[in-house]
Amino acid sequence: MPPQLTTTSQAILGLLSIVPMSGYDLAQAAEHSIRLFWPVSKSQVYAELARLEPMGLVQGAEIAQEGRPDKRLFRLTEQGEAVLDSWLESADPGAARHRLPFLLKVFFGHRMAPERTAELLREVRAKARAEAAELSSLLAVMDHPDAAYARLTVSFGVRMTEAMAAWAEEAEACLPPERIEIDPRRVGSTTASALFRAAARLSADDDSGLA
Amino acid sequence: MPPQLTTTSQAILGLLSIVPMSGYDLAQAAEHSIRLFWPVSKSQVYAELARLEPMGLVQGAEIAQEGRPDKRLFRLTEQGEAVLDSWLESADPGAARHRLPFLLKVFFGHRMAPERTAELLREVRAKARAEAAELSSLLAVMDHPDAAYARLTVSFGVRMTEAMAAWAEEAEACLPPERIEIDPRRVGSTTASALFRAAARLSADDDSGLA
DNA sequence: AAACCCATGTAAACGGTTACATGATTAT
DNA sequence: ATAATCATGTAACCGTTTACATGGGTTT
Question: What global pTM score does this model have?
Answer without folding.
Answer: 0.90
